[in-house]
Design goal:
single chain, alpha+beta, Immunoglobulin-like, Cytochrome Bc1 Complex, Chain D, domain 2, six-stranded mixed sheet, five-stranded mixed sheet, 11 helices, 22% helix, globular, binds copper (II) ion
Length: 482
C-alpha cells in the first residue's frame, strides 16, 4: 500500500498557518449578537415623581392596543406610559369580572422595540381613580411593574408604589424576545390573575431573518372568577371577583386568548390564502401550561422565547410554561379558517380557542356540528315567547346544539331533566344549588353558579315549551339524517 506523498516542508508550514488563522477567526467568531460589551448593564436608579398622570392610561407610539401589532417604531428612544387601574371587564359573555390592569385594558398594551433601544417608562398607580366610563368596586392598592425584557435591580425598579404615586425608570432591552411584563406586588399570583400583564416584543438589532405578511400577538391566560360576595351588579348582571382559593389550586374557570373567552373566535385574526403569518405567542399562566397549536398548518419556524437564535423547524405545537413565549411562523396554505388552540383540550374547552380567518369572508362553516338551523322558529305561541326570553337573557351563556359555552348546551335538556326540575331550577338556581344534587354536580362541572334570572313561573314554562320544541326538532332532524 502506498502512502500519499507528504507535501514539502514549506507547504506544510503554510497549511499549519492557514489552519491556525482559521481557528483564530473561529474563536473570535462573527460579531456576537449577545456581546455583553454592547449591553446596558448599568441602569440609572428609578425615580419617584410627585406629579400623577392624568388623561389616557397608556401612551407611546411604540404601543399596540390590539392583537394586530404595529410595525417597529424606528426611533431609538421610546417613551411609554402604562398606568394601573381597577375596572370591570367582560371576560366571557355575561361574566363581568373585577380586574386590575395596566393601561386600562387586559392584557395590557404591547410594547415593540429593538435590542439597544432606550425605553423611558413611567407609571402612575391610579387604582384610587375610576376611569371615565368604567366601573370598579375594588379598594385602591399597591402595584408595581416587572419587565422581563429588562436587566435591572428588582428592589429599585420593580418596587411597589402606592395609589397616587408615579414611578419612572429607563431600560435597554439587551436580548431579543417576546417578554412578559406583569405586576410584581404580593400576592403576585392574585395581581396576575386579576389581569396585570402584557408583552414586550424585542426585535434583534438587525430585524427578523424572515419576511411575513401578517403579525399578531396572542396572549394566553387563566381566570378564576367567583360571584362577588358583596353582590355588586353592573347593568343588572352580577359581578365576579377573583376566587383566591381556586387560584391557589389552579382550578381555572376560563383559559383564554387575549383576555376573553373565545375572544379570537368572535374577532378572528385575518389573513389571506398563501400568506405567511407570524404570531407572537405568550403564555401568561399564571399557573398552567399551554400547548399552542394551529389546526391545518405546521409552524415553519418556532423561535423559542421569541429569539431567532432558538430556532426549531416544522413544529406541530409549541409547549409554553408560565411566562414562556415563542414566535411561530407558518404559511396559510389555502382558503379556510385555521383554529388556534391550546392542545391541552381541557384548556381549549375553557376558551383557549381562536381563528385565523383566511376564508375571505365566506359564510360561517361551523366549528362544531349543528342540529338546529339558526333561522328555525317554533310556531306554538308559548314556545315563541320562550325563544324570545332565551335570546334576551340566556344566549350569552347557553347555546342550543352548538356546544357548551359558559353554561351547558341546552339541546336535549328536556330528555335529561323533568319539567318539574326545570321549573324549580329556572325559578331559583340558588336554592337548587343548595339543595339539589343534580344542580350541585352541574356546578362542579361548570365552575360558575348560574345567576338567578328573576324568572316568573309563567316565563319558566314558556322557556320549557321552547326547550321541548327544539328537542322535538333535533329528533326529527336526526331521524331525517338516517
Ligand atoms: Cu398589582
Amino acid at each position: 500500500m502506498r502512502h500519499p506523498a507528504r507535501p514539502p516542508v514549506r507547504g506544510r508550514l503554510a497549511v499549519l498557518l492557514g489552519i491556525s488563522l482559521l481557528a483564530a477567526r473561529a474563536l473570535a467568531g462573527p460579531a456576537d449578537p449577545f456581546d455583553e460589551s454592547r449591553m446596558d448593564l448599568k441602569p440609572a436608579p428609578a425615580t419617584l415623581l410627585k406629579a400623577r398622570h392624568t388623561g389616557p392610561y397608556a401612551a407611546g407610539s411604540a404601543l399596540s392596543f390590539t392583537a394586530a401589532i404595529k410595525p417597529l417604531d424606528p426611533a431609538h428612544d421610546k417613551t411609554i406610559r402604562l398606568d394601573t387601574s381597577h375596572k370591570i371587564i367582560e371576560i366571557a359573555p355575561g361574566v363581568q369580572y373585577s380586574a386590575w390592569t395596566f393601561g386600562n385594558q387586559v392584557p395590557g398594551p404591547t410594547l415593540r422595540a429593538r435590542v439597544g433601544d432606550r425605553i423611558h417608562f413611567s407609571m402612575t398607580n391610579r387604582s384610587d381613580e375610576i376611569a371615565p366610563g368604567s366601573i370598579s368596586f375594588q379598594a385602591p392598592m399597591m402595584h408595581s411593574m416587572d419587565f422581563h425584557a429588562a436587566m435591572v435591580s428588582p428592589q429599585d425598579k420593580y418596587r411597589s408604589i402606592a395609589p397616587g404615586q408615579t414611578i419612572a425608570f429607563d431600560f435597554t432591552p439587551n436580548y431579543p424576545g417576546v417578554f412578559m411584563y406583569h405586576c410584581g406586588t404580593p400576592m403576585i399570583l392574585e395581581h396576575i390573575a386579576s389581569g396585570m400583564y402584557g408583552v414586550v416584543v424585542v426585535e434583534p438589532r438587525e430585524g427578523y431573518p424572515t419576511k411575513v405578511d401578517r403579525e399578531y400577538v396572542v396572549i394566553q391566560s387563566e381566570f378564576y372568577p367567583k360571584p362577588d360576595p358583596q353582590g355588586h351588579k353592573v347593568d343588572g348582571k352580577p359581578v365576579y371577583v377573583l376566587d383566591t382559593e381556586k387560584v391557589k389550586t389552579k382550578e381555572s374557570t376560563y383559559t383564554v386568548f387575549n383576555g376573553r373567552y373565545n375572544g379570537l373566535v368572535e374577532q378572528p385574526l385575518v389573513a389571506k390564502p398563501g400568506e405567511r403569518v407570524r404570531l407572537f405567542v405568550l403564555n401568561v399562566g399564571p399557573s398552567n401550561t399551554s400547548s399552542f397549536h394551529v389546526v391545518g398548518t405546521i409552524f415553519d419556524r418556532v423561535w423559542l422565547d421569541g429569539n431567532p437564535r432558538n430556532e426549531l423547524r416544522g413544529m406541530q405545537t409549541v409547549l409554553l410554561g408560565s411566562s414562556s413565549s415563542a414566535i411561530v411562523e407558518f404559511r396559510v396554505p389555502e382558503k379556510g379558517k385555521y383554529i388556534m388552540v391550546d392542545h391541552h383540550f381541557a384548556n381549549a374547552s375553557q376558551g383557549a380557542l381562536g381563528l385565523i380567518d383566511a376564508s375571505g369572508g365566506t359564510p360561517d362553516t361551523d366549528l362544531e356540528h349543528h342540529n338546529i338551523p339558526a333561522t328555525a322558529t317554533p310556531t306554538d305561541a308559548q314556545a315563541v315567547q320562550g325563544k324570545q326570553i332565551f335570546e334576551g337573557k340566556c344566549i350569552a351563556c347557553h347555546s342550543v346544539g352548538e356546544g357548551n359555552k359558559v353554561g351547558p348546551d341546552l339541546l336535549g335538556v328536556t330528555r335529561r331533566r323533568s319539567d318539574g326540575w326545570l321549573v324549580r331550577w329556572l325559578k331559583s338556581p340558588e336554592t337548587m344549588l343548595k339543595s339539589d344534587e343534580t344542580a350541585q354536580a352541574l356546578l362542579k362541572k361548570f365552575n360558575l353558579p348560574m345567576p338567578d334570572q328573576g324568572l316568573s313561573e309563567a316565563d319558566a314554562l314558556r322557556l320549557i315549551a321552547y326547550f321541548h320544541w327544539f328537542d322535538q326538532q333535533g329528533k326529527a332532524m336526526k331521524s331525517g339524517e338516517h
